[in-house]
Amino acid sequence: MPARPSPRRAWRAAGVQVRSAVAATVLLGLLVVAGSGLGLLVLRDSLYEAVEASGSVQARLVRLSVTGELLRAGPERTDDDAREALDRAVGADDDRGSLVQVVRQDDVVVAASRDVAGLGPLSDARPRVAEVAQERREEPALGPGRWFATTLGAAADDEYYRVVVLQRGTSAESTLRTATAIVAVAAPALLVAVAAATWVFVGRSLRPVEAIRRTVEGIGAGHLDGRVPVPDGRDAVARLAETMNAMLARLEASQRAQRRFVADASHELRSPVATLRAAAEVWADHPGTSSPEEFAALVEDESARLEHLVADLLVLARADEGRLASVRGDVDLDELVGAEAARLRATTALAVRVAAAPARVHGDAAQLARVLRNLTDNAARHARGAVALGVRAEGGQGGMAVLEVADDGPGVPAAERARVFDRFVRLEEARGRGSGGTGLGLAIVAELVAAHGGTVEVDDAPGGGALFRVRLPVPPTGSPADAAQPPSAASR
Ligand SMILES: Nc1ncnc2c1ncn2[C@@H]1O[C@H](COP(=O)(O)OP(=O)(O)O)[C@@H](O)[C@H]1O
Ligand SMILES: [Mg+2]
Question: Fewer CB atoms near the end CB (10 Å): N or C, the chain?
Fold first, then answer.
């Protein structure tokens, strides 16, 4: 048996367009019902009050015509002048639907409009002199609908009498009926219009969202070059579209970088493998062409190249995953530089100058040694005769440790200074020297330095060669070794 959806869930499932239209219509409907109900009530009261006010004016007009003589004599026997005046007053409103009686203290009706001639008093109210009593009631004998009885207390020659004016509410009631009919027609029309307008308006506002959705749906993993349409205006939808396009651009750029990396890596891996294979083939076909020693040396060289390359690729892969610089401790840069200078002196004929002030940073000693090794390898390869290594502190407490590796070689042209840190970038003239580098050394330096929260740049050495400068943050002294976590590796 299917579970009955809860009303709440059904409301959510209805979607924003339906919900907006329903909410706007219901809200407006409540307002219209309350507002028009109140309006009609106020209108009815003021119409009824107007009827009653005219009733009391009429009663007062009639009182002006009544004399004591008329009261004493009764209907048939008054003098002509008084009779006429009274008839005029009483009869004047016949055509307006008002019925008038003049009633004596003893309930004898001394004058009356034609339509109520011969009837007894139309009201039992006996207000005091000059006061008015009003009633609303049914008078089926006289006609349908609501009737308004106004009774005015009066006196002539010390005799009490009352003037009764009976009015029909017809005109007030027909006005009310008209007003009610207008409301009854206009309100639903208004509600329908508002529901439709809300539906259309919300639908139109959602259209760009749907367009964005459709575009994103069409953007597959294979082609990230699509962009979603950005609607006019600066609303949330436009910002969403802009943000989404920015994200697509980043994804596309990183996808392109990944593909290029894989292509470059395969390319670099292919040449040592091809060399090994060719050597093996030659060796098998013409065993006499090279000595076993030569063959072994070639295999060793090429496999060393492969090993280096694979190791470098591994470092970069770890950098891309943000898994560099995981082992941390205090590292004395001046000691690293001392050891590296000793190595250079032992393995090269270069003049090696060292200017190392004590500088302790927090990081992975092996990785920082790798940074220094990659830089000195480059310097040694490009130098004409001298290499200079330096360490100094910059900016005092909590400042930076600066590590510099300079040589007297050709230097790095200003236009290439950003590019040399990219993966697989070897400058043209360097390629020709067959130095065997793969263009990953500086890319690895950049990743490792970034993983330690530092920066690296290339500059002109005072002697004209290249000067690579690495800045690493120095943890504030006294802080525990593991407290200062530098920002995670920023991928380049
Ligand atoms: N000390 C230097 N002097 C001049 N050019 C340099 C120096 N260091 C690096 N470069 C240039 O930067 C390029 C990239 O260096 P690197 O990433 O270490 O790759 P590789 O050493 O494998 O060529 C080198 O090919 C070279 O052209
Ligand atoms: Mg190198």
Answer: N
Q: Where are the domains of the chain?
A: 15-175, 236-320, 329-473
State in Å: Cα 378 to ligand 1 middle: 6
Express each pLDDT in 1-31 by its tens digit.
Answer: 556 668 888 888 888 889 999 999 999 999 9
- Residue 320's pLDDT is 85
The yes/no answer on whether domain 329-473 falls in CATH 3.30.565.10 is: yes
396 sits in the region (left: phi over 0; alpha: psi -120 to 50; else beta) called: left
Adjacent-strand bridge partners of 103? 109, 162
CATH 3.30.450.20 holds for 15-175: yes
Q: How far is CA 449 from CA 234, 389, 395, in A?
A: 40, 17, 19
**CA 129/CA 156 separation, integer angstroms:** 10
Confidence band, pLDDT 50/70/90 cuts, at residue 460: very high
Task: Supply angle C-alpha 370, 374, 375, rounded to 5.
Answer: 120
Task: Determine which residue's CA is closest to atom 27 belonging to ligand 1.
Answer: 427
Lining ligand 1 with CB less than 6 A are 374, 378-379, 382, 407, 409-412, 420, 425-427, 430, 437-443, 466
Residues with Cβ within 8 Å of 97's Cβ and at least 6 positions away in sequence, in order, are 167, 168, 170
Q: Is 357 helix (H, G, I), strand (E, B) or coil?
A: coil
Q: What is the tens place of the pLDDT at every residue in 287-300? A: 888 888 988 999 99
For residue 62, give the nearest of 26, 32, 92 by alpha carbon.
92
Sign of CA dihedral 476, 477, 480, 486: positive
Question: Among 90-99, 135-144, 162-171, 329-338, which stretch is predicted with the lowest mean pLDDT?
Answer: 90-99
Token pair 């020659």 is found at 157
Atom number of ligand 1 nearest to Cα 465 = 3
